[in-house]
Amino acid sequence: MTNDVKILIAGGHVIDPGQWNGVADVLIEEGKISAVEPNLQQKLQKVKGLKIIDAKDLLVCPGFVDLHVHFREPGFEYKETIATGSAAAVAGGFTSVCCMPNTYPVNDSRSITEFILAQAAAAGKARVFPIGAITKGSKGEELAEIGELFDAGCVAISDDGVPVMNSLVMRRAMEYASAFHLPVIDHCEDSQLSRGGCMHEGAVSTELGIPGIPKAAEEVMVARNIALAELTGARLHLPHVSTLGSVRMTREAKARGIPVTAEACPHHFSLTDEAVRSYDTNAKMNPPLRTDEDVRAIKEGLQDHTIDIVATDHAPHAVQEKQLEFDEAPFGIIGLETAFPLTLNLVEEGILTLEQAIAKLTREPARVFGLPYGTLAPGGEADVTLIDLNATWVVDVARLHSLSRNTPYAGWTMKGKVVKTFVGGIIVYDREETL
Fold first, then answer.
1. Which residue from 42, 93, 100, 329 puts its CA 20 to 30 A from 128's CA?
2. How many C-beta atoms surround the C-beta of residue 394 within 10 A?
């Protein structure tokens, strides 16, 4: 299907957060949203060449936006490529994704940024937005050419995967980024406090004899970065918040008017460190799974808007890497195809309304990075996701679209399944074609 076809998505429950919540039809013309209204099908029944997609009993919403993925290309294509990562994205309902720079070589230059954009265009699935490195080679020493990265198409800067330990370097990065209105993302971890740790430091790590990572390792750096954001006025984005203390400091910073935003990952509000008891390396991520107290704090942060968005931190690793001993296996899990049903659980629990949950995946991440997506507003790009909220399915790693299989949710029964995904008015995922 090309984007010159007129498409009517008819009779679905449309949720465009802050704009529409009810039964309506969505008209797509030339790859753009043309109208969102009730009973459009009746008005357009004589229009020739109109393709009608029956969305009765389905949720129709803007395509999801993920500010935090790792697509591994260039350099680690055996874990994930931009093509396979994009396929996983659209299968999970994500039409726009922002990829971290910890590739090989690190995305610290125009050439790597342009390569990523070219590979994404060739894949023809999700929109891929590169995030440039803060420092050259992500070594934390010398600033990357931030202006060049911005000009090449980067939407934020980060050394994600490694923290910027030098506070002066981070200050300068924030000052330079502010000139281009780029968000600054720091992996909040004091690497001295966390050194050698493999999971959350607490009762479970003690019982298992696994070296722990204390909450303070995250919270010390959250506090530092908030202080530097207050000093510089830079836009600070806190990734994968995992502790009560981090949530509390973010809430206080926002109350003081500091330009800080934050994200939570589904694994940090659906699992605790108890998941590590089986020594399953698919439960090993950084920051690590925390305690019930921390999970409650993250849910409260999502509920009161302290935490702005849900992001996946999709981090693929090869099977043989995750089969190593727990202390040797890499951190990280895949998450694009399980993110929505895990977020939907927050609606089932009464933490969020359905519209609020959709906002955390669409309008809000688009706002945080200033992307013109996450909405069904007429005139905008027709990035649309159709979902069967009542569909149940079992996570079968062999059927996932990611090149990697490292998920702690294998065998779980999920509720809520993406049916179709449109990018620019073109169907890039159709569940019926994968059955």
1. 329
2. 11
